[in-house]
Amino acid sequence: MFDYFVKRILVMVLTLLVVSALVFIVIQLPEGDYLTSYIAELESQGESVDPQKIKYLKEEFNLDYPIWQQYLIWISGVVQGDLGRSIEYDMPVVDVIGEVFLFAVVLNASVILFIYVVAFPIGVYSATNQYSWGDHGLTFIGFIGLATPNFLLALILMFLAKKYFGISMGGLMDPEFEGQPWTLSKTISILEHLIVPVIVIGTSGTAGMIRRLRANLLDELHKQYVITAKAKGLSSKRLLVKYPLRMALNPFIADIGNLLPQVVSGSVIVAVILDLPTTGPLLLDALRNQDTYLAGSFLLFVSLLTVVGMFLSDLLLAVLDPRIRLTGGAEK
Amino acid sequence: MNNRLEHYVSQDPFNPMEVEKLSPEQEKFYMASQWRMMWWRLKRHKLAVWSGIVLLVLYTSILFSEVIAPYNLQTRNPDFIFAPPQSINLFHEGKFMGPFVYGLNYKLNMDTLRREYTENRNSIQPIRFFCRADGYKFWQLFHSDVHLLCPAKDGTLFIFGTDRLGRDIWSRIVYGTRISLTVGLVGILLSFLIGISVGGAAGYFGGWVDSLSQRLIEILRSIPELPLWMGLSAALPVSWSPLAVFFGLTLILGLVDWPGLARAVRSKLLSLREEDYCTAAELLGASPQRIIYRHLLPNFMSHLIASATLSIPSMILAETALSFLGLGLRPPITSWGVLLVEAQNLEAVELYPWLLIPAIPVIITVLAFNFFGDGLRDAADPYKA
Fold it and tell me: Touching check for A23 and chain B: CB below 8 Å?
């Protein structure tokens, strides 16, 4: 178990290193950099460009070095907890994304929680009442949830809420709380504003999870040990909870690997539409303005979320399922 | 098991050379090819069939966009900015008139400074069929001006209303279908090629090729798709022509999407390469490439096609999302996502809700692809009970 643990951590760190390099290349792909567009903007406004400032900016952001050196400088900083400076905001990246980071983690965690809480009872009901009206209805709703793109769902919900209830669901909290110290009512306001994004982001994941849980549970229910247990007179509820349900629970944990990237992707675009101060709008801006270190840190951060999530799910699975831990994963 | 046959033992002496006679119908059934059996199976899945028909109609429509749309893509009606959808009526005051729309009266409300349109019950504008209106260059080859539907002479026909430049939204959706539906196809083609090659090599050769590609897939999968797409499409130079951006975008969609497919191919090949016929082909001197493409891949081609069908909608959605965010396609190239950019402004949508209509074809297409792909996947293995 310990060997497995160490191995997985090593793989995770390596993965993150490669991801960071990939991310850095992707960010640097556009022609020019922030500085060139900055100078061009100043010149188009007829303002003179202070060569002193340019020189300072170039030195500050290592813009004169080749890309690989810029990467090395950045990544050695990241390892020490220094994510670099945001050119756009002229602040350390850590300060820009600090609060956002927390909120994104809270948001994504609540989405996953929502998916579990909703998918579990529905999936179990659908499987135990296969082909009933309830099952058909829920499957249909699930399909629609799966197929409706979540950013459209967000858009439509925003539209309906505004049209019929006259409320704006965007933003993180009611405007009057912004800049205020933390109070109970501010927390409540934030929680209220969390509900819609969580539902919107979670819908497709929930639908997928229901379908998988249903399929898995149905597979288990048709196995012979279930028939044996029934023949021996075990009550159907006790039987269900004691054996097949536990087997069918595996995907709940194993699927975090699939679920997390999906949720993170979803939260990025939904955040743009609902104007939530999480990864979405900031990432979009950073990408547009070629704010290299900010965008890079964001992409690295969303990857970190998924990689750590997958790591945790692997660990949990290994604890729950000795077959995985003993084969150690890759070998055949 | 209730209607069991009666116990029956034939009195004839046993003849080992006897061949069971098949009736023509039975023969047709037993000798059917795998693809034919898949078709039979698919036909039983009603929802999949209907979805397939919807998709077929949509894809056929992209060949005739110019004819189906009553207006051209860029035709502006400066007198009808943000005009509401005109409903198509059949009866006027209890009298059957054939399909027609009421004309629109326009008034600028000086208090709210809003454009207000009201139906003019006196102006009946019959819709014309197969008629001449805006000229266009059909398939970029020859000039024509025939449309399936046109407004009455000097009238208007805005089935889904108009946008801020007075362009007919229905026509723009019809043209947008062309781009939105092809983005997914081109993208999936690319991801298919990469996925099969990488997955095939990994599964067949195993060893370091396998571990290398496995690591690569793991790394790619750990970056959430949408942010990666956003980063890559932000890298498309602004100086590119919209068409070049379109191809760049399909390239990006394909480049990010292949790992899932490669995984499926690999795991199948790992088990299939141990089969006897594969060893036989090897002993006969077939090259690895030939064994993979000729002997192994056809075994689960149907599965691959089914899973590809299921991943097309995610590409269509990605394009829509990226264009919506302003990172994807740009006008004058018009896709559903580009049309939805107009719906980004919630105040506008509140006043002119028909700006949201382009979301409907997106949802329909994605649903249809999902149902159809599900049916295909069930049918992909017709030998299974």
Answer: yes
